[in-house]
Amino acid sequence: MIVQAAITGWGKCLPPGVLNNHDLSTLVDTSDEWIVSRTGMKERRISHVDVSDLAYVACARALACAGKGADQVDMIIFGGCSNDTQVPNSSSRVQQLLGANNAACMDLNTACTSGMYAMSVANAMIQAGTIRSALIIGAEVISPFMDWTDRNVAILFGDGAAAFYLEADDSGEEIGLQAEALGCYGDSRDILAVEGVGLKYANLGWPLGSTHWNFEGQNIFKQAIKGMYTGCQQAIEKQGIAKSDINVVVPHQANLRIIELLANRLELPEAKLFVNVHRYGNMSAATAPVALVEAVEEGVVESGSLILVPAFGAGLTWSAQLIRWGKRCTPINDCDIDLPPTSMSGLELVKQCLKAHGQYKAPVK
Ligand code: ACO
Hints:
This protein is of the alpha/beta class. The chain has twelve helices and 13 strands. The protein has one domain (about 5-355): Peroxisomal Thiolase, Chain A, domain 1 (3-Layer(aba) Sandwich). Acetyl coenzyme *A (ACO) binds near residues 38 and 111.
């Protein structure tokens, strides 16, 4: 009998600072109408704390949801491409904040797909018997290294985190991750690249904190659909199911048009799609995990639902997971852990980033 990795805890953490389309139109030449019609996005969140703080709160909520203590975590996998510090890693900071002293800690960076790749790695390690439980995280604080002067990218991204608690299940039931497909179009890695982040740029004398995004939107758009479509087809084939067996599709939320075109190509009805891109934009590694948590919280995912989660990110990495949800869709315990409060709005936080990069220009009255 194969041990399954049941998902028994889930939690999210969205920072309170909201940045809406109107706010963005005061920073770059854009409009609410353009952003909504091209992306489906209305607002996104900007963090006033570090990425490991968001991850910690999401993990605390996932543990309470599972009814587990921090000492019942064998492994923490932090999925994301934004880190407070490169050395030491972010997962060790989450361990420290949780007091999860029995946990091994690893960071995993496949950009936007990191949270879902983390689920695949933890699932495999539980099935192999290496560990019995794991906290997997998808978390990003992108706002400090966003180029807020570039309208092509500044409108697309936000900050956030989500986490899941996975535990070994010997009941023989088929629950948790049932099949996946993972891949990468490395030849296209330069079409989505953040120049200025990484040691290569420090060696080139690049000014600290300043970035330039290589972002070929239309090319990424096409490759995203190709990668997610390929992943979905492979995962469905591996599992030997019909598309009609899928109850809910929770895709990476990079653009509403990408989501709708993918569903169309897969011949999956739009009614099965879970969409929250209007609320948060693209939170990179946190996107699909936050969407999955909200699909459960909103009752879209039900007891025993079969869920398809396609995602893609810089690299260009892609993934598709088929997840069988367990019986329980409500948390065992509530969690009173929260972020420290802030009086700053999303726009004020962005202006703080611009000032830090020496880019903020007060509007001429
Ligand atoms: N506001 C107003 N106008 C804009 C903006 C803006 N924010 N951005 C671009 N424009 C203009 C362009 O300059 C262009 O004007 P022109 O015709 O005079 O040259 C026009 O609008 C059309 O621009 P396009 O780039 O053709 O717009 P498109 O319809 O392709 O939408 C978008 C752009 C939203 C970026 C789209 O290509 C997209 O979603 N691509 C994929 C993005 C993506 O997947 N991101 C996630 C990356 S992976 C990850 O998750 C990390």
